[in-house]
Amino acid sequence: ILIGAAVLVALAATVAGFRMLQARNLAGAQEALGSILVSTSGKDKIAALEKFLPEAPSALRGAVLFELAGASMAVEDYAKAVDSWQQLVSVSKGDAKLVASLGHARALVLVGKPAEAVKELSALKPNAPEAFKAPLDRQLGLAAEAAGDKQTALAAYNDLLQSGEAGRRVREGPGLERPV
Question: For a 10 Å CB count at each end of the chain, is N or C smaller?
Answer without folding.
Answer: N
